[in-house]
Write a structure and sequence with these properties.
Layout: H1 18-24, E1 29-34, E2 37-49, E3 78-83, E4 86-93, E5 100-111, H2 113-119, H3 127-130, H4 133-140, E6 152-153, E7 156-159, E8 169-172, E9 189-192
Antiparallel strand pairs: 1-2, 1-7, 2-5, 2-9, 3-4, 4-5, 6-7, 8-9
The structure holds a DNA duplex (13 and 13 nucleotides).
Organism: Virgibacillus oceani
Family: Belongs to the DNA glycosylase MPG family.
EC number: 3.2.2.-
Length: 200
DNA sequence: GGCAAGATTCCCT
DNA sequence: GGGAATCTTGCCC
């Protein structure tokens, strides 16, 4: 399928429209290097957050704070967000001053399974290592320290992975944003049909 | 400084 | 299915 020593995706990859990027990221390989070793997973589930017009987005109505600042810059950077006891990973998209992002909600383990297992002691099976946005960051060792990191460089990057046919991609409403009015129903969540590492 | 809320996960009344 | 866990951010409710 692919070799982990291959090159990261070029910066140009991130300059496509956010909804296109959310679909293009499916099948790509997300890689994280730590002192303990290297882990990677195939992206199987994403959600698009469409900036100022999207009530569910942190950058809704052009809200600009220390936390959302990275989304106003160039695409292709990591937007990590701390949620309760967990950390979530987004890929910044949209050009400068277009604060859009794609949330990574699920990956399929590819390399470093032993390390993932040790980082996810509560998981009862392999599937529970990475079938959720907070789980996959823990399994891969992604933390708030990765905020703003360019996804074209070590130690956290994305490269081409599995080829995905358009017919394998399914879309539907996003998850966990029930109190955001009409934005709740937008079909901006994308996943690979039948993949068991999809969160729901 | 303080407090409320949150794109979640885990465990149990 | 419901509530606790427990950290960061944002705004002063």
């Amino acid at each position: 399928m692919c070799n982990i020593t291959d090159k990261p995706l070029d910066k140009k990859f991130y300059y496509q429209p956010t909804l296109e990027l959310a679909k293009a990221l499916l099948g790509c390989l997300l890689i994280k290097e730590t002192p303990n070793g290297i882990t990677s997973g195939i992206i199987v589930e994403t959600e698009a957050y469409m900036g100022p017009a999207d009530r569910a987005a942190h950058s809704f109505n052009n809200r600009r704070t220390m936390r959302t600042e990275i989304m106003y810059g160039n695409p292709g950077h990591a937007y990590t967000y701390s949620m309760h006891t967990h950390c979530l990973l987004n890929v910044v998209s949209g050009k400068t001053d277009e604060p859009e992002a794609v949330l990574i909600r699920g990956v399929e383990p590819y390399t470093g399974q032993n390390l993932m297992a040790s980082r996810r002691p509560k998981a009862k099976n392999e599937r529970q290592w990475t079938n959720g946005p907070g789980k996959l960051t823990k399994a891969l060792g992604i933390t708030m320290a990765d905020y703003g990191h360019p996804l074209t460089e070590s130690p956290l990057w994305i490269m081409e992975g599995r080829k995905i046919e358009a017919t394998q991609i399914v879309s539907g409403p996003r998850i966990g944003i029930d109190n955001t009015g009409e934005a709740r129903d937008y079909p901006w969540r994308f996943w690979l049909k039948g993949n068991k590492y999809v969160s729901k």
